[in-house]
Design brief:
The complex is a heterodimer of chains A (102) and B (388). Chain A is mainly alpha-helical. Chain A has helices spanning 13-35, 68-76, and one strand spanning 61-66. Chain B has 388 residues and is mainly β. Chain B is built from 2 helices and 21 strands. The chains are: A mainly alpha (102), B mainly beta (388). At the A-B interface, helix 1 and strand 1 of A face helix 1, strand 3, strand 5 and strand 11 of B. Strand 1 (61-66) of chain A pairs antiparallel with strand 3 of chain B, so a sheet runs across the interface.
């Protein structure tokens, strides 16, 4: 009985093909995802975004808002106007809450 | 470069390119290539809240009654949030959110005398967080676990009265055999809110990964997705929970998820499903399942705001006991009045629970069986949520 010796050949094609397919699928998924744009999904268990009855378009009363760096600059230069004074819109009955906190 | 290196480098390159496309870091460069950031360092504190009250009529075939309830789909509450910019890309924040539910729709009973529920504020969120666009967000305190909300993604515009937790509509009420609606239905929505530490990754191509570890030594991991394609919105979430029955969780582990699609023409579809299982099998081991579907339409009839209609169906197996088949069907209408932050709503829901497996009856000979179908309850609710 004779044996036929065939040259050893690594069979890498199936694994490579699988990896290539996986990368192609991942690329398609990423491409598909990248084609859209993010939107801010608010969980239904949270207070909904949008207009409030008296708080206005932002839906929140801004109780306090200021820029501490401007306050520091103002303290360094007492002659300058003081734009950094805390803004307390609720006290005046208004509401400017248009910037999301997150 | 061998094949493995090629694959890895390809994957990394793809990830980096995708990241550069989607992260959208708002940085401009001067002629000397030094980055120029324009940012403010604000400190702010804001107050918000809502009141959500409704009239609920229910009939279980034996008794019927009308209730004035706090709609537990979205309870009456107050929230105070504070945030401060530490650097251009690092913020610290805190929030306190409490609810006050007098006669909650999930706590009422047919035979109650006086309003149901605690006559005081109860906790929802008491937490601090540290946030970076580059590194994500770290939360500490009482608040949403990573998995909370993963069964409840819903873009229908009707969640104020109907979503996958169908028991919130009238969960406290009893069927003819005394079993409460809330005992027969669940949407296995993660670990709810708890005292925990939680981490959220930055959003990447609409995806965000989260994990949390609770005071009860339970942990969870969740993946969320929200993306808009040419006017069509898709949101989804899935989570895994490693529970601890000794600490009160229902099962050893839980898997749940949901997806909602809102098409540009207002049509929307929502689907949710989940399961709770124990690691063992046999008597006393938990093996439950729920699934939920909703079809709806958002459209504009009045200039006041969107009108939304939706119909849903839910199925829960083995929640109260092995062999229970619980079904819920509903139809809902929501009308927004944008300029006063108000949603008017109405809906009807039918709960039906059947028991198919025999149950052992205490005090009888071994093998004795009995069957008791809890029956049906029809409930009608109408009310308003006013965000102030």
């Amino acid at each position: 009985m004779t044996k036929t010796h065939r040259p050893h050949k690594r069979n890498t094609a199936p694994g490579l093909r699988g990896s290539a397919i996986a990368i192609a699928v991942a690329g398609l998924l990423l491409g598909g995802c990248a084609g859209g744009k993010d939107f801010n999904y608010t969980q239904i268990s949270d207070i909904p975004e949008g207009q409030g009855l008296v708080s206005g378009p932002g839906g929140e009363f801004t109780l306090l808002k200021y820029d501490p760096s401007q306050r520091a600059a103002s303290n360094d230069n007492p002659a300058a106007p003081s734009p950094a004074a805390p803004q307390t819109t609720a006290a005046s009955g208004g509401a400017t809450g248009t910037q999301p906190l997150e | 470069m061998n094949t493995r290196s090629l694959l890895i480098s390809t994957a990394l390159t793809g990830a980096v390119l995708a990241g550069s496309v989607v992260t959208g870091v708002n940085t401009t460069y001067a002629t000397d290539l030094e980055p120029v950031h324009e940012c403010r360092k604000d400190i702010a504190m804001k107050l918000s809240g809502q009141v959500n009250r409704a009239v609920l009529y229910a009939d279980n075939g034996e008794v019927d009654d009308t209730f004035f309830v706090d709609n537990d789909n979205s309870s009456t509450r107050l929230r105070v949030r504070a945030v401060g910019d530490v650097t251009c890309d690092f913020k610290v924040g805190a929030q306190i959110e409490v609810q006050f539910e007098s006669n909650s729709s999930s706590a009422i009973r047919f035979d109650q005398s006086g309003a149901a529920g605690p006559n005081n504020f109860t906790e929802r969120k008491l937490e601090v967080w540290f946030d970076s666009e580059m590194w994500g967000r770290l939360w500490l305190g009482q608040g949403d676990t990573a998995s909370n909300g993963t069964s409840e993604v819903d873009l229908s515009g009707t969640s104020v009265i109907a979503y996958s937790a169908v028991e919130d509509f009238a969960g406290g009420l009893e069927f003819e055999n005394g079993q409460r609606i809330g005992a027969a239905f669940s949407n296995y929505d993660g670990l709810s809110r708890d005292d925990r530490v939680r981490y959220d990754t930055p959003t990447f191509a609409g995806f965000q990964l989260s994990t949390s570890f609770t005071d009860d030594n339970e942990w969870d991991v969740a993946l969320r997705y929200a993306r808009e394609f040419g006017g069509h919105r898709v949101a989804a979430a899935v989570s895994y929970v490693d529970g601890d029955r000794d600490k009160g969780f229902s099962s050893d582990y839980q898997i749940s998820g949901s997806i909602s699609v809102l098409f540009g023409n207002g049509l929307n579809l929502t689907f949710a499903s989940g399961t709770q299982k124990d690691e063992g099998t046999g008597v006393g081991q938990r093996d439950t399942f729920f699934t939920y579907g909703k079809a709806g339409w958002l459209f504009d009839v009045f200039e006041w705001g969107h009108t939304a209609i939706a119909f849903d169906v839910a199925y829960v197996a083995n929640e109260a006991r092995g062999g229970d088949d619980a079904w819920a069907y509903g139809g809902f209408l929501v009308q927004k009045i944008d300029w006063v932050g108000t949603e008017l709503y109405a809906g009807v829901r039918l709960y039906d629970v059947e028991h198919f497996a025999p149950v052992l009856v205490a005090g009888t000979n071994f093998g004795a069986v009995a069957s008791s179908d809890p029956g049906s309850i029809v409930a009608v609710m109408t009310g308003a949520r006013v965000k102030f």
